[in-house]
Please model this.
Amino acid sequence: MKTLFKIIIVLLMLSSNVFAQKYITKNGKIDFYSDAPMEKIEAKNNQVKAALDAATGDIVFQVLITSFEFPKALMQEHFNENYMESPKFPNSTFKGKIINLKDINFTKNGKYNATIEGDLTIHGVTKKVKQSGTIEVKDGKVITYCKFNILVKDYGINIPNAVAGKIAETVQITVDVALDPKK
Amino acid sequence: MKKIYVLLLVFSLVFVKNTFSQDLTDEFGPDVKPKAFTYATFKTSRIVIGQSVENPAKGNLNFSISHHFGALNDGPYGFYGLDRSTIRLGLEYGLTDKISLGLGRSSYEKTIDAFVKYKIFRQTTDDRMPVSISYFCDMTINGLHFAHPEWNNYFSSRFAFVHQLLIARKFTNKFSFQLTPSLVHKNLVVLNADPNDIFILGGGGRYKLTQRLSLNAEYHYIMTSQTRNDYDNSLSLGVDIETGGHVFQLFVTNSQPLFERGFLTETQGSWGKGYIYFGFNIVRTFTIVKPKTFRKS
Model:
């Protein structure tokens, strides 16, 4: 009986350790950038939450809109007040999966190409997206990196005619999020 | 010994349960709302002609051009007031996110005004602090030649001081309201009977029609019979139009002066008698010092 207990326990503990390696962070980085003749817009966010399950390839990102920082205070106010309506839509999220999970060895240092597919929600509008980026495994840490463009009108963000020339319609988003193994 | 094994088994099971939890967002733990301050209670640092709780952000400089035309009752000969004008040029700089300093020069009585605005409390999004409260202190120097140069005139008699508490709440994304009790102290008054200190209770609000357009109103009530009868309470109505870098404020008011001492205590003529002045403010914000994150190291 005792030995059976021991075996079960050892197995269970192993199972939870081996199959369940999760990675998590609360201070990942996401920047965005857009260029138009009148106004270059850039913003940085250093408080991105992200989690990755190495066993299933599930990956989520959660971004608090009000924690984007801009070089101009007025721009930040307009971003929240006029464009993103952050009181109404406080977060942007991505929920998806790494579809080429078998190509990535989470136990070996290296940079792997990764393709991610899932739902991107910005300004309350959800779109299916598929993007490729890299996943770097470095001494137990996992660094996800991806650069992609979105069209603001896809997410129901209106640019009024008065400022149409000043603000670009595409925004380049850079995701650079380092996740730590969950203890 | 057996007890320990059972305990370990339970623990392991708990871990296993964790492994199969469905939603990865659970990993972030309970959703704690970060403490955040309400922003954009008003579009700019003035509701219409009086101060609002807004300051320029740290390192930002606001340049404002304020313009009042003459009174509507100037009639056709004075093109309903458009022939005359008084102007104020103003600068306001955000020393920190809480303190701003301002300087202005008005053509009305050739007045220079200098002020400090300090955010004492700021409304938070979780309503633990339901209102924003700022203190505003302004000093004006009348630049006109003394009316009686032959008298023994003192430079100090050119000074007047205004103290205001600005108590504002952003009720919804569209509607904000502010209470503004004021105390005006004048070093020199015209008549013996005039008081040196005058208390005024004011209020103002804004309602956003669209994201970039709002209706504003402001009223200042001089607490009963402190001034002579020929002075009126100040009432202003306006719209704010925001175009990204600028805010345009168009308004009508019965106050001709554009600085606190003037419109609070020296408004002459009422709306009913046609003393209505059309005016506008243009506010442009310049970023002088960028936030830390964007400075090149």
Q: What stands out?
A: Chain A has a mean pLDDT of 88. The longest helix of chain A spans residues 2-18. Residues 21-181 of chain A form a domain with the Lipocalin fold (CATH 2.40.128.110). Chain A touches chain B through 50 residues (CB under 8 Å).
